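User
Please review the sequence:
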Amino acid sequence: MVSCISISLRVSRCRFRALGNSSSLSIARQYGTSTQQEKLKVLFMGRDEFSCLVLEELYKARDVWDELVVATNPDQRVGRRGSQISISPLKAKVETLQDVRVKLIPPSKAEFRKWKLPEPFASYSCPTETSIESSPPPPQSHILVTASFGRILTGKHLAHFLPTRRLNVHPSLLPQYRGPAPIQHALLNGDEETGVCVIEMLPAVKKTSDGQPPRKSGIDAGDIWAHRKLPQPGSATFDQMRDILGREGGQLLVKLLRDIVNKKEVSEPLLSVPSFRETGVDRKIQSPPKPQRIDGGSTIRPAPMIYLEDAQFDPQKLTAEQAHRRWRAIGHQRPTSTFVEVSSPAGTTKRAVQLHDLQMCPQESADAVHQRLPLDSGSVICMTNPQDTMALFIRCSDGSVLCVGKIKPEGKPVLHAQAFWNGVQGKNKAVRFTGH
């Protein structure tokens, strides 16, 4: 095997041997053969709470790095007329750490594509297939790490690091849940097992003559160097799983980086994740995503972006379990939304509401609820739950019952179930929930 230290002007010699196919486990690659230990210079790129947790674990591992640079989003004005300032959680986190430099990326995607990496990383570059850079090849001690970064790195960005030094911490067991919302979709599907992995990043290069991306390219496609399986409790929320996976992902990353620093031979990749072209998977798959099989029996399940309509609750179409999963998975970013319809002799009114504090109908309340609650989907009653607080009980599509603790009417603050019920229920009034 050719060491990347002895890179000449040919691209093929800057790259380790590629895995032959997704199921092959016969090829071993090394991160280095020298016995001399050299700490790493790390460029860490992220933005949200998940990346903060990964960074925390990396920061504590002072035995693996001697320079840590963090690139993240700048403050942005949001809300009506830019009345509020949104601060990147990672930026706020870095400001509390010592010996860490922070670099802010341009706010727009177009500007970011032209953005120059900070030093010392910008001074080195691998030659590309179409051009030969005048700068020296990157040292093996330079590492790029991304975690929930939210931006696509260009080939020029990645070229400042050796191929096996471009690592992404992804909160799923790739190739399952490729895309921007892996934690959410694992919860939406009710998976009992989840996990986190460290994957080698490939450039998202231009399309070929047939209009398709090359096979060895794309987002969340590349060699998986480490993964860790974890149980996913049936009652878990996004925030809970994000925190668990963030810490586990950070520890997994540190373990891998220690192997690099200690010049341990890293065995063959666990799996080579193919591009979307190889699997025939459309990145814009509509919900619910359908699993796809690849060589070796692994399953690809896309994790597309979460949209406003994904949070819509229609009791005529969804079961209580499905509604509860949606709230646990995406309620933090897209509140569960529906409509309440109030009918009286004077007419019918309908208004939009958000549902909060959702749970399945407690077993202790099941008999009393089923006796009082009409069988029609969308029907609702207000009664005491096992916690001795009032809650709304809504009949769903399969006869199951959803328990709701709080409601936010459009343009109003969040109300406890009893306060909301007192405002809509009255003599000769019929109240029901509907998805449209």
